[in-house]
Design goal:
The chain is an alpha/beta fold. It has helices at about 10-35, 55-70, 90, 95-100, 105-110, 120-135, 145-150, 160-165, 175-180, 185-190, 255-265, 285-295, 310-315, 320-330, 350-360, 380-390, 415-425, 490-500; strands at about 215, 220, 225-230, 270-275, 305, 335-340, 365-370, 395-400, 435-440, 445-450, 455-460, 465-470, 485-490. The strands form two sheets. Strands 1-2-3-4-5-6-7-8-9-10 form a ten-stranded mixed β-sheet. The longest helix is centred in the N-terminal third of the chain and has 26 residues, at about 10-35. It binds pyridoxal-5'-phosphate (PLP) and iron/sulfur cluster (SF4).
Length: about 500
């Protein structure tokens, strides 16, 4: 069921939830009824499994009821976007409408956020934008921001002094100026002139994925699992995307996907198939249904998992129809899902929380992968809030990646120690399963490599104990006293082995 989140005060929202909840239970009832009897699934049946356009219509009615209660400002956030006054709720809740009406250039987005320039200055910005696109030719990584995601930007956090300076067109390409735009939502969405910069560490395919292709759609880096890309489109094009060399510009056909599936079929050691892209949920229900049907017919495939950012950037995609289709497949093969929240504010979107609730209610275990980004989330406080928010929405923090070395995203790169400091600030200080693993996905195709603070302080002089720091005493330099905890080792061989595993001098 939908649950109010802790960030928002209770009150009138609860009323809306009660009202919405009644209708929602109604929908579930219809779904179950349809599944059991098939009677409702008449001419508007999308799938044979008993969910219908009618279910969707009732779902929209539910949303309208919540809206009519007019009790939760966040539920109709588009009212904050200029030029969206006449949008109907039915349009807003339609993921295809969201995609179609995405902001595709910086000028439109800034205008919708209420930024005001003279026409000639808009023209200058527009020209600079087009020039920068032209500079990289056809492989430009597009801008696409759903109105849903844009509506979460707090315009007041967009530095107005910096904006004023931007009125001088020569400033348009000044990364320092743009770095003053501190809204984390904005920074992930907005095509930033700093993307024009290339630094010595970057290249188009830092993870050497292309060299590890077993089919156009399929990458195999690990012994028993593959990454199967099923689309190169996404709800939003995240500016920090690691696959920006091809996401938004390339496309995949059914034949490409089929080749990947055939590869899995003929390689019995592949027990885990990761459907991603792009964004795995950007393909329509019918195609997704077909892909899952094929994969689950392969006996050695044990689990199928999705990589999708739709709960964050296009939560409207998580419809009852999609979820009940997933549930049907899950009865045959375990489905897992990884999503990609980077900032606690992304969980303030009620649509996102609804999407997660729907998936969790369907029994799909969810993890979250974050990317550590300068100007977005590289602080212990932000990450602590994020992991707590995720747990409240039944999502388990899985990975924190350091920013990959893809071209044009050096301005997002954090220091490695930022990640370690975050790990230190989480472990012990909060719920154990709120703590993700911090990774460097190794440039050159080395795969995901975990990094963690070193809690081993050494060995006791008599060789009997390993000496340990805990989360509270980590910074204490006292190596013999109360700051150190001991555990017995099994002789010199154990010590030698531990030293080798921890790469300590012997
Ligand atoms: C990340 C990744 C996986 C999955 O890795 P896990 O650590 O199992 O989550 C699989 N294949 C490729 C190519 C990947 O990049
Ligand atoms: S959703 Fe994922 S694949 Fe798509 S742009 Fe964002 S990071 Fe890249």
């Amino acid at each position: 069921m939908l649950r109010p989140n802790a960030v928002r005060p209770a009150g009138s929202f609860d009323k809306a939830i009660k009202l919405g909840g009644a209708v929602y239970r109604g929908i579930q009832g219809v779904g179950v009824f349809a599944q059991n009897t098939g009677r409702i699934a008449l001419k508007d049946t999308k799938f044979e499994r008993g969910f219908t356009d009618r279910t969707e219509a009732i779902y929209l009615k539910w949303r309208t009821a919540v809206e009519t209660a007019n009790s939760f400002d966040g539920i109709a956030p588009y009212k904050n976007l200029k030029g969206f006054k006449d949008v109907t709720l039915t349009q807003w809740l339609d993921w295809k409408w969201q995609v179609k009406n995405s902001f595709k250039n910086p000028v439109d987005l800034l205008k919708a956020l209420g930024v005001e320039f003279e026409q000639s200055q808009w023209d200058d910005i527009s020209k600079a934008f087009k020039d920068s696109q032209a500079r990289f030719g056809i492989n430009t990584f597009e801008m696409r921001v759903t109105p849903s995601y844009a509506s979460m930007i707090k315009a007041r956090d967009i530095d107005s002094a910096a904006l004023a300076e931007l009125k001088d067109p020569k400033n348009w390409k000044n990364p320092t100026l743009w770095a003053r735009f501190i809204d984390p939502i904005f920074n992930q969405a907005f095509m930033h002139p700093a993307e024009l910069v290339r630094d010595e560490f970057e290249n188009a395919d830092p993870l050497h994925e292309d060299a590890m292709k077993v089919a156009k759609s399929t990458t195999r880096r690990y012994p028993n699992r593959v990454l199967l890309e099923i689309t190169e489109t996404c709800g939003m094009y995240c500016r920090h995307c690691t696959r920006r060399r091809k996401v938004s510009t390339e496309s995949l056909s059914w034949d490409d996907i089929k080749q990947g599936i055939d590869y899995v079929r003929s390689n019995p050691e592949v027990r885990d198939v990761l459907l991603s892209g792009g964004d795995a949920f950007l393909v329509n229900d019918k195609l997704l249904d077909r892909i899952l049907t094929e994969l689950e017919s392969i006996p050695h495939v044990q689990i199928i998992r999705f990589g999708t950012r739709t709960p964050v950037v296009l939560p409207q995609r998580i419809t009852p129809a999609l979820v009940s289709m997933l549930k049907t497949h899950q009865a045959k093969k375990a489905l897992w899902l990884n999503t990609h929240f980077n900032h606690p504010r992304e969980l303030e979107n009620p649509e996102s929380r609804r999407a997660l609730a729907l998936l969790a209610d369907a029994g799909i275990p969810m993890g979250n992968q974050s990317v550590l980004l300068e100007g977005v989330n590289n602080s212990p406080k932000i990450m602590m809030d994020l992991v707590h928010g995720l747990l409240q929405n039944r999502v388990r923090p899985y990975y924190i990646y350091i920013n990959d070395l893809s071209e044009g995203i050096a301005h997002f790169r954090t220091s490695v120690s930022d990640g370690l400091k975050i790990m230190l600030a989480l472990r012990g200080f909060t719920t154990g399963f709120a703590v993700p693993t911090f990774l460097i996905d190794a440039p050159g195709g080395g795969g995901k490599i975990p990094l963690a603070p070193q809690y081993v302080a050494g060995f006791s002089p008599d060789g009997k104990y390993i000496l340990l720091k805990n989360y509270e005493t980590f910074d204490d330099s006292n190596l013999e006293g109360a700051a150190v905890f001991k555990y017995p080792v099994k002789g010199p061989e154990d010590i030698a082995a531990v030293k080798a595993l921890l790469r300590m001098p012997s």
